[in-house]
Amino acid sequence: MSRSIKKGIYTDPKLMKKLGRLKAGDKTVIKTWARASTITPEMIGFTFGVHNGKIHVPVMVSEDMVGHKLGEFSLTHKFVRHGGKMQKELEAAAKQKEVEAAKAAKVEPEAKK
Protein backbone atom coordinates (compact mmCIF):
# COMPACT_ATOMS: atom_id res chain seq x y z
CA MET A 1 0.00 0.00 0.00
CA SER A 2 1.44 3.35 -0.98
CA ARG A 3 1.85 6.27 1.37
CA SER A 4 -0.86 8.94 1.26
CA ILE A 5 -0.14 12.15 -0.61
CA LYS A 6 -0.91 14.38 2.39
CA LYS A 7 1.82 12.64 4.43
CA GLY A 8 4.37 12.94 1.64
CA ILE A 9 7.11 10.50 0.71
CA TYR A 10 9.29 8.89 3.36
CA THR A 11 13.01 9.49 3.22
CA ASP A 12 15.20 8.71 6.20
CA PRO A 13 16.34 12.05 7.73
CA LYS A 14 19.71 10.56 8.71
CA LEU A 15 20.25 9.44 5.11
CA MET A 16 19.39 12.89 3.76
CA LYS A 17 21.83 14.42 6.26
CA LYS A 18 24.60 12.13 4.99
CA LEU A 19 23.67 13.05 1.42
CA GLY A 20 23.84 16.77 2.22
CA ARG A 21 27.46 16.46 3.38
CA LEU A 22 28.62 15.03 0.03
CA LYS A 23 29.42 16.97 -3.12
CA ALA A 24 27.78 16.22 -6.47
CA GLY A 25 29.64 13.49 -8.33
CA ASP A 26 31.28 12.10 -5.18
CA LYS A 27 32.06 8.39 -5.62
CA THR A 28 31.92 7.33 -1.95
CA VAL A 29 29.37 4.68 -1.02
CA ILE A 30 26.75 5.86 1.48
CA LYS A 31 25.92 2.89 3.73
CA THR A 32 22.31 2.67 4.86
CA TRP A 33 19.87 0.30 6.51
CA ALA A 34 16.88 2.47 5.48
CA ARG A 35 15.44 0.17 2.82
CA ALA A 36 12.03 1.88 3.09
CA SER A 37 13.39 5.28 2.02
CA THR A 38 12.01 6.59 -1.25
CA ILE A 39 14.54 7.64 -3.88
CA THR A 40 14.34 11.38 -4.53
CA PRO A 41 15.84 13.47 -7.37
CA GLU A 42 18.59 14.72 -4.99
CA MET A 43 19.93 11.14 -4.78
CA ILE A 44 20.64 10.79 -8.53
CA GLY A 45 24.27 10.01 -9.29
CA PHE A 46 25.20 8.78 -5.81
CA THR A 47 25.97 5.20 -4.82
CA PHE A 48 24.21 3.76 -1.78
CA GLY A 49 25.23 0.63 0.09
CA VAL A 50 21.79 -0.78 0.88
CA HIS A 51 21.83 -3.49 3.54
CA ASN A 52 20.10 -6.73 2.55
CA GLY A 53 20.39 -8.44 5.93
CA LYS A 54 23.88 -9.76 5.33
CA ILE A 55 25.94 -7.24 3.33
CA HIS A 56 25.64 -3.75 1.87
CA VAL A 57 24.75 -4.06 -1.82
CA PRO A 58 25.99 -1.08 -3.89
CA VAL A 59 23.12 0.67 -5.70
CA MET A 60 23.95 3.41 -8.22
CA VAL A 61 20.89 5.69 -8.41
CA SER A 62 19.74 6.82 -11.85
CA GLU A 63 16.82 8.95 -13.06
CA ASP A 64 14.46 6.05 -13.72
CA MET A 65 14.74 4.90 -10.07
CA VAL A 66 13.13 8.07 -8.65
CA GLY A 67 9.95 7.23 -6.73
CA HIS A 68 11.00 3.67 -5.94
CA LYS A 69 12.28 2.42 -2.58
CA LEU A 70 15.98 1.71 -1.95
CA GLY A 71 15.16 -1.82 -0.82
CA GLU A 72 13.77 -2.74 -4.24
CA PHE A 73 17.30 -2.74 -5.67
CA SER A 74 18.92 -4.81 -2.92
CA LEU A 75 17.47 -8.31 -2.98
CA THR A 76 17.22 -10.15 0.33
CA HIS A 77 16.79 -13.66 -1.05
CA LYS A 78 19.25 -15.51 -3.27
CA PHE A 79 17.47 -17.53 -5.97
CA VAL A 80 18.55 -21.15 -6.04
CA ARG A 81 17.41 -22.90 -9.19
CA HIS A 82 14.49 -25.26 -9.24
CA GLY A 83 14.93 -28.93 -9.88
CA GLY A 84 17.48 -31.35 -8.59
CA LYS A 85 18.88 -34.46 -10.18
CA MET A 86 16.61 -34.15 -13.21
CA GLN A 87 17.53 -30.48 -13.73
CA LYS A 88 21.26 -31.32 -13.61
CA GLU A 89 20.77 -33.94 -16.33
CA LEU A 90 18.95 -31.42 -18.56
CA GLU A 91 21.69 -28.83 -18.07
CA ALA A 92 24.43 -31.38 -18.80
CA ALA A 93 22.67 -32.39 -22.04
CA ALA A 94 22.33 -28.74 -23.08
CA LYS A 95 26.03 -28.12 -22.36
CA GLN A 96 27.02 -31.20 -24.36
CA LYS A 97 24.94 -30.01 -27.32
CA GLU A 98 26.60 -26.59 -27.10
CA VAL A 99 30.10 -28.17 -27.12
CA GLU A 100 29.21 -30.30 -30.15
CA ALA A 101 27.89 -27.23 -32.00
CA ALA A 102 31.12 -25.36 -31.25
CA LYS A 103 33.20 -28.28 -32.57
CA ALA A 104 31.08 -28.45 -35.74
CA ALA A 105 31.51 -24.71 -36.30
CA LYS A 106 35.27 -25.06 -35.83
CA VAL A 107 35.58 -27.98 -38.31
CA GLU A 108 33.47 -26.25 -40.99
CA PRO A 109 35.90 -23.34 -41.75
CA GLU A 110 38.80 -25.80 -42.03
CA ALA A 111 36.86 -27.84 -44.62
CA LYS A 112 36.48 -24.73 -46.81
CA LYS A 113 40.27 -24.32 -47.16
UniProtKB/TrEMBL annotation:
Keyword Magnesium set for record: no
SUPFAM superfamilies in UniProt: Ribosomal protein S19
NCBIfam families the UniProt entry points to: rpsS_bact
HAMAP family: Ribosomal_uS19
Protein family according to the UniProt entry: Belongs to the universal ribosomal protein uS19 family.
PANTHER family: RIBOSOMAL PROTEIN S19P FAMILY MEMBER (PTHR11880), SMALL RIBOSOMAL SUBUNIT PROTEIN US19M (PTHR11880:SF8)
Protein name in the entry: Small ribosomal subunit protein uS19
Protein source organism: Candidatus Yanofskybacteria bacterium RIFCSPHIGHO2_12_FULL_45_19b
Top-level taxonomy: Bacteria, Candidatus Yanofskyibacteriota
Encoding gene (name): rpsS
